[in-house]
Write a structure and sequence with these properties.
mainly beta, Metal Binding Protein, Guanine Nucleotide Exchange Factor, Chain A, 7-stranded mixed beta sheet, 3-stranded antiparallel beta sheet
């Protein structure tokens, strides 16, 4: 991926905008129950960037969804935007669905497939891991 790439996005109502610069550390589809509920779908695709590579503008709120993660959202429209890992300071995960063009950052693997929704069938050929994997 182009190191000079710029990935812009924001919330549904437009009150929050952001731009991530450069290549992500990784892009993964997570099937854990926590991510599914936060994203409102059968899995959640997130791209991890160094915090300093992400410019953010607008009022945001957050809640601690686990011992390891803060979830950041727009308080106006409730769009889930970012994950702030407590155990990995200096990194930020972006909800790929909040990008203006989510097709530019496809997942590289599936994680927590042991928690996958029963009717989901993965046929994309990507690696599948029953639990999480190291960064």
């Amino acid at each position: 991926m182009d190191e000079a790439a710029r990935h812009a996005g924001g919330c549904h109502c437009g009150a929050v905008r952001y731009e991530a610069r450069g290549a992500p550390v990784n892009v993964r589809a997570c099937h854990c129950a926590s991510c599914r509920k936060a994203a409102g779908g059968p899995f959640h695709v997130r791209a991890v960037f160094p915090v300093e590579a992400v410019w953010r503008q607008g009022r945001m709120a957050r809640y601690r969804s686990s011992a390891r993660l803060w979830r950041v959202f727009c308080p106006m429209c409730s769009t889930y935007l970012f994950g702030e890992p407590i155990d990995r300071p200096g990194f930020l995960s972006i909800n790929v669905d909040s990008l203006d063009d989510p097709g530019l950052l496809p997942p590289q693997m599936h994680i927590w497939t042991s928690s996958m929704v029963g009717w989901v069938r993965l046929a994309d050929g990507l690696p599948q891991h029953p639990e999480g994997v190291a960064w």
